[in-house]
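Notes continue from the previous slide.

Worked example: a multi-chain complex. Inputs as given:
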Amino acid sequence: MKTKDLVYIALFAAITAVLGLVPAIQVGPVPITAQTLGVMLAGAILGARRGFLSQLLFLVLVAIGLPLLASGHGGLAAFTGPSAGYLISWPIAAFVVGLLTERFWGRYNLAWGILANVVGGILVIYAIGVPVLAAIANLSPEAAIVSGALPFLIGDGIKAVLAAAIAVQVRRSYPVIETPQRAVALR
Amino acid sequence: MRLRRETAAPVADPTRGVELRAVGHVYGDRLVLADIDLHLTERRIGIVGANGSGKSTFARLLNGLVVPTTGSVLVDGLDTRAHVREVRRRVGFVFQDPDAQIVYPTVAEDVAYGLENQGVPAAERAERVAEVLERYGLAGHADHPAHLLSGGQKQLLAIAGVLVMRPARIVFDEPTTLLDLVNTRRVAQLVEDLEQQVVVVTHDLDLLHGFDRVLVIDDGRVVTDGPPDSSVSAYRALMVHR
Amino acid sequence: MLALYVPRASPVHRTPAGWKLLALAGLSVLVFAVPTLPVSGGAVAAVLLLGLAVAQLPAGVLLRQARAVLWWLVGLFVLHAVLTDVLTGTLTVLRLLALVLAAAVVTATTRVTEMVAVIERICRPLEWVGVRPARIGLVIAMALRFIPLIAERADRIREAQAARGGLPRGLRGLATTVVPLLVQVLQMAHTTAEALDARGADDEPLPRRRRRDR
Ligand SMILES: Nc1ncnc2c1ncn2[C@@H]1O[C@H](COP(=O)(O)OP(=O)(O)O)[C@@H](O)[C@H]1O
Ligand SMILES: [Mg+2]
């Protein structure tokens, strides 16, 4: 791994942390924080491997006792609460977003970006977060979905679109994911 | 990152200085440097030139951050292509933006970073860090968060992080561009006091006062090479006729 | 940056971080493996005793952590009281509370640098697959350094936009700040990587013996 990759990883861990400082937007009773925007951006801009490591690093920062989650939470307590599953899914989510983004890289645009972000940044997070919620809180699957997925759907949808729009523009001026030129040349 | 293994046991000859032989460099299909043949042995060397003329690329050649596309660069007789690691140990590098080069959250930790890479034992490390912080007026800030320092202090910190490694030569790429007059003067004084060979890229022509040699780079070529007075007037004339 | 560490001279603070983490893991296994009221209730009491009396942490520190999950706990209790029974509700709430509080105690009694050292130690076996544990400390430090830097740059970008009369609020505001911010910091990352290399970041790993004293 190059030095530059280490810097990118630290950078996107920090970006997810800084997005936790953005005040939550209230949609009905549900607060929507900007933090998972950082998860999607990490995958969409750095790609799978570095995106994964950056969000893993973010979780390490939280675990070692820094109050970096939205509204100033942090420490090991964050990994024991009902939303532990969502938190733990972030690196995997960034990985899947990155994997799809790399797959779409040659023709990446808003639509492909949204697809990658929805699959990686919403479906993957719910697929891990909801069952963990059900297990930790002794809830039935239906109750877990009603309380742990549906209320966040609109906000997460907005973030998926926003992250794709941002990634498209960043790709235009400073692409980080490399086009697999050699693979193209060999063909 | 470029070369993981040194190709042979390097034999350095400090009297040879820095040699550039038929150096050319391209980024993509853009020619950035061409036909550079130089032998740099003077203690104070300045580099001036317009924005985008290739000064930073030139500076990066001197410690192996950039390896030339054609030709070769020798530091104390060591080819930067084959001996990156040894060359980097000999040549320190200070950038324009201190924020980009401070990597640890607190002052003392950041200064210690390069020494850790060199495998300096903890006790000696602490001693050398303290000494350098003292010398640059940062002793009271050892445990301060780096982001709370002023712009001038940040640049001093960045310089301290390089000097603590005791390189034999130091390259500065526009070290005063972001500083106010007071801090510019401080950095100028600091450069003047250094015993090492110093190469300074700058737009601040006052900084070149008392230098031994000044190169003017234009469009990737060295167009003037001489004492500061004549080089600076040549540079001014060149810019006026743009 | 404000960490969640609370300095005190207590035996809990002096206990090595690795042991505290093991104890936390042990507790989580216990409360889930033995789902009975005495165990879960006893765990909460023990953790409170340890945190408030032995470690002398202010109650507010633990309260703040508990508050983060308070509404969850209340909601859970009500849900269980309605759907299953009060006993299951109490049990679920108590064991979650025990874990959250225990984790908060570990965090409040352990310095960040100690945690970093534990992480480096845990990662040491990864050396066999080519990971360099020393670099983990480096990326943690860099991230901590970047957080205030990025926040500051974001402020500066918003000021510049406001100065030219444009400061969209809400989502559009977020996007118009984040795009230039990302381009700026990605460019900076290039220089940072060069600066790191110039200070020996890409040197060969040092022999094991010498790295010990880091
Ligand atoms: N990493 C790079 N990739 C591509 N082009 C570059 C890179 N670095 C510099 N350049 C280009 O090379 C030219 C010279 O740049 P530089 O050496 O930074 O000049 P100066 O420092 O004199 O302003 C510029 O046109 C710049 O755009
Ligand atoms: Mg330059």
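Summary box: Confidence is low (pLDDT under 50) at residues 208-214 of chain C. Residues 86 and 210 of chain C are 59 Å apart (CA to CA).
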